[in-house]
Specification:
Number of domains: 2
Largest sheet: 10 strands, mixed
Family: Belongs to the GRAS family.
CATH superfamily of the largest domain: Vaccinia Virus protein VP39
Radius of gyration: 24 Å
Number of strands: 10
GO molecular function, one term: sequence-specific DNA binding
Distance between the termini: 60 Å
Organism: Musa acuminata subsp. malaccensis
Strand content: 5-15%
Protein name: (wild Malaysian banana) hypothetical protein
CATH architecture of the largest domain: 3-Layer(aba) Sandwich
CATH topology of the largest domain: Rossmann fold
Number of helices: 18
Keywords: Transcription, Transcription regulation
Structural class: alpha/beta
CATH class of the largest domain: Alpha Beta
Shape: elongated
Helix content: 40-55%
């Protein structure tokens, strides 16, 4: 271990942040070009930010093999990241910049998983200390084009079982709710999806219902999806309607609504099984009051089932970067490790996933000043919902998905490599995990009076 990281291990508190700052400034000036840029800057603060920009650009120019450079260990990278986050929380911008410069030196978009995830965490923390009008800030937080976003999501959906696990498990629960009320509601299913996104969840449900439909017993599926833009909703409609045309004896109706619309805008069919889909939605809520209002409006609809899927990642409360970084780093590191096993380091698909999807999630979460919301389980119970036990079919389906992907670990034990499935809360939750880290958890709920 280098002397620098031995010193870093001994540092805690503001006094040590200042000590690290002094050490880092001396070392920074010795770097090629960095000291000169700092001196030539018209304003001292501008000079320090310029050093940060140069460090970022230097990382982007690095040879993918990083020849001749000693790689930091995962633990050393983690300590540098937490030091930068703690300095930001303490309003020590100078110390944060110095730590981020060092982090950029060891981060890489082409290195091992921790090096790659650190590059995006460093970007998010750098954006925290820059003004919105800064060109560097705009460069860091530049949104991918809709086409790039779609490509990144599509590549992730193909390479990783994460989203498929959530979607297939949710759909299995919806199908079982439909089967339980089939005689009562005349084979009619109405689904409300609060975040329809690209609609990738629904072809498997359409196919499942199509397999059940017959000429004498047709099935009606009405899907209402909330989306971010009119264009996204139209594209999703085109994909889903096109897919449903191949399904005989299934009547499929799609209705897209922009986010911000209320449940009063819904035209819910009578005598239909009503399912509400909250897959990856609650964590997009920016306040507890917004979440409470949403859940109360859903409860008023008295759905047959509410399906919830959440990523096992904390929401960053306003003003606290360090706690969010510490709690969320394991989740994203696991995601990056899983891609490392699925795709080669030089894969353009992997780079698209990390840049346009996972990296964007990291930076958005760090820079969003969100009110801390309570855990989804407590919030569901407090608004009149009761957890339901997931069926053995859901568990078997999840296992089969991982076997197909070739990355299955037994449910009793998760090995050092590959994904696994775990049941908790007496079978009321089903989680996809990697090693000892839960990544995504699915649960089902019913209304109580």
């Amino acid at each position: 271990m280098s002397p620098k990281f031995r010193r870093l291990q001994r540092m805690e508190g503001d006094d040590n942040v200042r000590a690290w700052r002094s050490h880092a400034i001396k070392k920074r000036k010795a770097r090629d070009g960095f000291g000169a840029c700092h001196v030539k800057a018209k304003d001292a603060d501008d000079g320090k930010f310029l050093v940060l920009l140069q460090a970022k650009e230097r990382m982007l120019r690095e040879d993918p093999k990083r020849s001749g450079q000693e790689d930091a260990t995962d633990e050393q990278l983690r300590r540098l990241l937490l030091l930068a986050a703690s300095a930001i929380d303490a309003d020590h911008a100078d110390a944060a910049i110095d730590a981020l410069v060092d982090l950029y030196q060891h981060a890489s978009l082409h290195g091992h998983p921790m090096q790659r995830v650190m590059a995006y965490f460093a970007d998010g923390l750098a954006a925290r200390i820059l003004t919105d009008s800064s060109p560097f800030y705009r460069s860091i937080m530049a949104h991918p084009t809709p086409e790039e976003e779609f490509t990144g999501f599509t590549e992730l959906y193909r390479a990783s079982p994460c989203y498929q696990f959530a979607h297939f498990t949710a759909n299995q629960t919806i199908v079982e709710a439909f089967e339980a009320e089939e005689k009562q509601n005349g084979r009619r299913l109405y689904v409300i999806d609060f975040d329809v996104s690209y609609g990738f969840q629904w072809p498997s449900l359409i196919q499942s219902l199509c397999d059940k439909a017959t000429t004498s017993k047709p099935i009606s599926l009405h899907l209402t999806g909330f989306g971010r833009s009119t264009e996204e909703l139209k594209n999703t409609e085109t994909r889903l309607v096109g897919f449903s045309k191949s399904c005989s004896n299934l009547e499929f109706v799609y209705n897209g609504l922009l986010r911000g619309s209320t449940t009063s805008d819904l035209k819910i069919e009578k005598n239909a099984t009503l399912a509400v889909n909250l897959v990856f939605y609650l964590q997009t809520m920016k306040s507890s009051s917004e979440m409470l209002a949403t859940l109360m409006s859903i409860h008023s609809l008295n759905p047959s089932v509410v399906v919830l899927a959440e990523k096992e990642i904390s929401q960053r409360p306003a003003g606290y970067s360090a706690r969010f970084v510490e709690s969320s780093l394991n989740y994203f590191a696991a995601m990056f490790r899983s891609l490392h096993d699925c795709l080669p380091a030089d894969s353009l698909g992997r780079l698209s996933i990390e840049k346009n999807h996972l990296g964007r999630e990291i930076k958005s979460a760090i820079t969003c000043n969100c009110e801390k919301t309570s855990a989804w389980k407590g919030r569901m119970e407090s608004t009149g919902f009761q957890g339901m036990k997931l069926s053995s079919r859901s568990v078997s389906q999840a296992k089969l998905l991982l076997k197909i992907k070739g990355q299955f670990s037994t449910i009793e034990h998760v090995s050092n490599s590959g994904f696994g499935i775990s049941e908790t809360d007496d079978g009321r939750t089903l989680s996809l995990c990697l090693q000892d880290r839960n990544l995504i958890t699915v649960s089902a709920w019913k209304c109580t009076r």
